[in-house]
């Protein structure tokens, strides 16, 4: 062996030894790998698995991040940490079905008017956007799983309130990027992603605050339709070229079209914003026209369109941020009858959807705390939504909409150990989250955890009605 090779081997060995020593000193074990936690058993509790009937005096065992067993008579490992569940109720961790929790601030997004993959590489100023060919506000290739920031200060607040999983997505642009299912555990992005690329959100807000194409509601609709038409056309063009490329010009590369085409081929659902009845009908028509696997979100006027949504067999993400009168509004100012009607009837939407057997989940949509989130769900219950349907919407139905019901949403052996332990009825007027487990890790809940969110709310892509959408 040459002298240089011997030196290289010695240095490499010493580096490995040093790295192992640092890992041991920090108590992290093998570098780069999450370490198993001690088994945990919760005994003598009321267990609400959601997938079946409640179990009084039951037990649940968590081992290596998974639910090992649940029932009235289960074996508890001798080394398990045992929690006395007397007087407590165990639920699956709650799921916020659409938010921007963990996403970077809007300034990190690509500028509106950035050139598509087939054009010049330099971003085009908004004033120079010529039309849909410039793909304004479109970055559907971005992945929330890659952009997620585990140091978001809001994460602890929402976890303390019982939300263990979120579906988070970029929010800037018309096609801002693809959503991911994220567990609120761990300090590294690699440890928290349950599933990436679970949905493609559409946001009907003009890029760069308007003033350029598409700067109106009709402009947005025209642009979205054109993008879907281009995606369909390009797919056919690429197919023909791949079958016989000789003598033909190769198809132009367009990152927006490529990302959407891949999502459509994989049957990834598209999240379509539909706050009011006009938007609901518009998005139902868009889904039919382009055969898009659709999920409506927002849907405050779903009470008026539940039958049509059911006929279309499309799931719904209901915004739990019910319309309210602005706190700084003039108390003597006149208000439109339709505004008053919306405030009164919006909380009836979940009950109307449940009656029509439409699958739905809840999103926090900018609410500042998990306490406000659950209060809004309770308001829907008071408006006629059965409590068991509300709990399913917060757990298994949310998981099912995003295709992760095999690992989240209920307390069953083999599923991810996302568990909350509550004193009182979770959806009653008085309840307290006592223990939270995410991926089997126990997180201490402060006694005074009020759910106040530093830095504001977790807002998903907005489905607020625009002026052009009002009847």
UniProtKB/TrEMBL annotation:
Molecular function terms, GO-annotated: hydrolase activity, acting on carbon-nitrogen (but not peptide) bonds
Annotated stretches, region: Disordered: 106-141, 448-471
Domain annotation Amidohydrolase-related: ranges: 343-441
Pfam families recorded: Amidohydro_1
Protein name: Phosphonate metabolism protein PhnM
Originating organism: Luteitalea pratensis
